[in-house]
TrEMBL record, chain B:
One of the Pfam families matching this protein, by short name: BPD_transp_2
Keywords: Amino-acid transport, Cell membrane, Membrane, Transmembrane, Transmembrane helix, Transport
Keyword Transport part of the UniProt annotation: yes
GO MF assignments: transmembrane transporter activity
Lineage per the UniProt record: Bacteria, Pseudomonadati, Pseudomonadota, Gammaproteobacteria, Pseudomonadales
Family the entry assigns: Belongs to the binding-protein-dependent transport system permease family. LivHM subfamily.
GO terms for cellular component: plasma membrane
Designated name of the protein: Branched-chain amino acid ABC transporter permease
Membrane-crossing segments per the record: 12-29, 34-54, 60-82, 94-115, 135-158, 187-206, 226-248, 255-279
Length: 446, 293
């Protein structure tokens, strides 16, 4: 039994404690926007993740410290380590969907196609937009069925289409594709199989022979696959691998005499981590680049001045500044910031919730002038989203590995979105039917 | 016919790469009855150490020697800190300890040497050789030769040295070995050090093929069916098991794969292992356990 003095003392301390907590929460709630980060800094994919998060964090720091936040709203973030494991990504989402210390969550970077699939229904139920640049579920491009999923920039169908467009460019026109043999060597997973339908459609349209050869995960022995490729004598190879299966694929292709400059990697087979282990075999290898590598863009000059040179960068090794995965993070962060800025024009200069951020993403319009002003000219194509179109750009550049670094060899190549759209709508309609979803009337919402 | 021959030879040669990994498991299993789950992590750690030293400008041979030294020190530490306190505990306890150890070694490797992917050039050109119409990988041929030398050296160690005889005594009957004065701790130190060296050789060859990165530790998944087929206690079995797995999965991918959608190499090896488990549970060369009931 405590005496009255003890009770008074405890009560006073408790009241003081509460008082010291309240302003922090209130302050955070009034002026901060929370960004949960499902990261993978350890494990099999850490080499991709570490520069990626550095790109995102460096850009957020730049916005906070140089621009004073998004119209005064500061960004705060919290990482949760997932090792690129779906269950941990879902756990991270659940932990932070409600925000942190009063700062609301406006969107969730899934940083993973399997993660996007797993969270698809949760995001819709919680009204939290799921952002997965150049990844995600392709049919979620159709925002009338998937209001809260954004496979931004270039969905998987678009990646197939840009690849074929580049081959046509190299061959001298689409009419030259007729009778050509195009082999897709793909990671045997949902990600790898995602381009089978568009490749079949494009083969039908242009008359090339579409051959699909799977590589099972992890793909560290591919002799059997590339022996088959050699037998086929392909004109082109579309390499849709991931992780270790990319350098092993490039090296094995070289061993089997497949010319490396006839191989085009997709977005996730086109980073430094994919080519450096392959050594000289990768020289001349090309890859699609909606996230081009390089540190010579205007935004890099600003980041170098204000973040890197002042010791505020998240990069432990500055050699990774401007590498492909650093730029992936940078571009993702920039798109999110622009979407929040767009949403603030409607809802005011304050932290936003998921529903408000969705409006921002659906009305995002990064035009040439905005690209120039934000320092992203050349690094990002113009991007305009809408209720019906959650992809936006649908373009990529092509980069080629010169043995030392990636060189951009084309401008922005546009996917054949008109051809692909019926395929996307058919799949989204099937999803809507399966889940009993009544599609939004996007025309009425414009 | 040429395609079949090429697939078969390519598969056999690829199989020796699996055998190299499997041998590390066999060594530790023979001496302690423990399935060392940390073998993959040791492989990653050794390759990362070598590449990190080499990147710092340490000459190839010196980097190799220093890495060997690191692996030996690592083996001594594992024996002292992990295994010795667990003497006389059940095999599953020791297995769980190696499971934990694998996470510690992987974390330590990435924490100390970074998570970025590194290229490893051993100076072996991966140029194909042609025997008639049949293409053979030069790299795989050299890997097979390395495996053969390694097996010969291990055979000498086991059969012609006092240490080897002590190792075999511990493997056959630990209590009897202890009763005649064999130092079990010393034996474990030696075995883990040798397994570390084997891990280094396997790590360098696999690292040269796929880059030195975290996924090197996953190469052990290829060794499991090899061990089931060859037997957990036979180095020769690891070689034969590797050849069988390599040839079978390559032939299956080429001839069965297209019929059922392809991408069958990983599970086909395990399917084969299950068949062997059914027919010959101890593997082709493994010791059959005979117990009085």
């Amino acid at each position: 039994m405590r005496n009255p003095f003890q009770r008074t003392l405890i009560g006073a301390l408790f009241a003081l404690g509460l008082q010291s907590l309240l302003p922090t929460v209130a302050q955070a709630a009034s002026n901060e926007q929370f960004v949960p980060m499902a990261t993978y800094r350890v494990g099999a994919y850490a080499s991709s993740g570490i520069p990626w998060w550095a790109g995102e964090i460096d850009y957020f720091r730049y916005i906070n410290e140089v621009e004073g936040g998004i119209n005064g709203v500061k960004l705060v973030w919290q990482e949760c380590e997932t090792e690129w494991s779906v269950d941990r990504i879902v756990e991270c989402y659940e932990r932070y969907k409600g925000g942190l210390n009063g700062a609301p969550t406006a969107f969730f970077f899934t940083h993973s196609t399997p993660g996007s699939y797993a969270l698809m229904e949760k995001g819709a139920a919680d009204r939290i937009p799921l952002i997965d640049g150049a990844g995600g579920r392709t049919e979620s491009t159709d925002g009338s069925v998937f209001p809260y999923a954004f496979p931004l920039l270039l969905n998987y169908y678009g990646q197939a289409s840009v690849g074929i467009n580049y081959i046509a460019q190299r061959e001298g026109g689409f009419d030259k594709l007729k009778g050509k043999k195009i082999v897709t060597v793909y990671h045997d997973s949902a990600y790898g199989r995602e381009t089978q339908a568009p490749m079949a459609l494009l083969a039908q349209k242009y008359g090339f022979e579409n051959i699909q050869i799977p590589v099972a995960d992890p793909g560290n022995e591919q002799s059997a696959q590339w022996r088959q490729v050699r037998q086929i004598k392909p004109d082109w190879v579309f390499l849709r691998t991931w992780g270790v299966s990319t350098p092993v694929g490039i090296k094995t292709a070289a061993r089997f005499g497949i010319a490396v400059d006839r191989i085009i990697g997709d977005v996730w087979a086109g980073s430094e981590a994919d080519v450096i282990p392959a050594g000289t075999a990768a020289k001349g290898y090309q890859a699609l680049a909606p996230f081009p590598g390089g540190a010579e863009f205007e935004i890099h000059k600003r980041l170098k001045q204000y973040i890197l040179d002042t010791g505020k960068s998240d990069l432990k090794d500055p050699a990774y500044f401007g590498k492909v995965y650093y730029n992936v993070g940078l571009i993702n962060a920039a798109i999110a910031v622009e979407a929040l800025r767009t949403a603030q024009t409607k809802f005011g200069h304050r932290p936003l919730n998921g529903e408000e951020a969705r409006w921002g993403f659906e009305h995002l319009n990064i035009d040439a002038a905005r690209l120039k002003a934000s320092g992203f000219e050349g690094l990002l194509p113009p991007l305009k989203l809408s209720c019906a179109d959650h992809e936006g750009g649908g373009a990529a550049r092509v980069q080629q590995w010169d043995g030392e670094k990636w060189q951009l060899v084309t401008g922005w190549l546009q996917a054949d979105r008109d051809t692909l759209r019926p395929l996307i709508e058919a799949k989204s309609a099937a999803y809507a039917k399966e889940k009993g979803i009544t599609p939004r009337d996007c025309a009425a919402e414009q | 016919m040429n395609f079949f021959l090429e697939t078969l030879i390519g598969g056999l040669l690829a199989g020796t790469m699996y055998s190299l990994v499997a041998i590390g498991f066999v060594l530790i299993y023979k001496a302690s009855g423990v399935f060392n789950f940390a073998q993959g992590a040791m492989l990653l750690f050794s390759a990362l150490t070598f590449v990190s030293l080499h990147e710092q400008g340490v000459p190839f041979a010196l980097a190799l020697l220093l890495t060997l030294l690191v692996m030996i020190i690592g083996a001594l530490l594992i024996e002292r800190l992990v295994l010795r306190p667990l003497v006389n505990r059940s095999q599953i306890t020791l297995f769980m300890a190696t499971l934990g150890l694998s996470f510690i070694i992987e974390g330590l490797a990435q924490g100390l040497m970074g998570a970025q992917v590194r290229a490893l050039d051993l100076g072996i050109e991966d140029i194909p050789l042609f025997v008639g119409e049949v293409m053979i990988s030069q790299f795989d041929l050299i890997a097979a030769a390395v495996a053969a030398v390694l097996v010969a050296l291990l055979a000498l160690l086991f059969n012609r040295t006092r240490i080897g005889i002590a190792l075999r005594a511990v493997a056959d009957d630990t209590r009897a070995a202890l009763s005649i004065g064999i130092n079990l701790n010393r034996i474990w130190q030696i075995v883990w050090a040798v397994a570390g060296m084997v891990g280094l050789v396997a790590g360098l060859l696999w690292g040269a093929r796929q880059g030195v990165q975290f996924s090197l530790s996953l190469v052990v998944l290829k060794a499991l069916p090899v061990l089931i087929i060859g037997g957990f206690t036979s180095i020769g079995g690891a070689i034969v098991g590797g050849l069988i797995v390599g040839a079978a999965e390559n032939l299956a991918e080429a001839y069965i794969g297209p019929l059922i959608g392809g991408g069958i190499t990983p599970w086909f090896a395990y399917f084969l292992a299950l068949v062997f488990l059914y027919i010959r549970p101890a593997g082709l060369f493994g010791d059959r356990a005979i117990e009085r009931v």
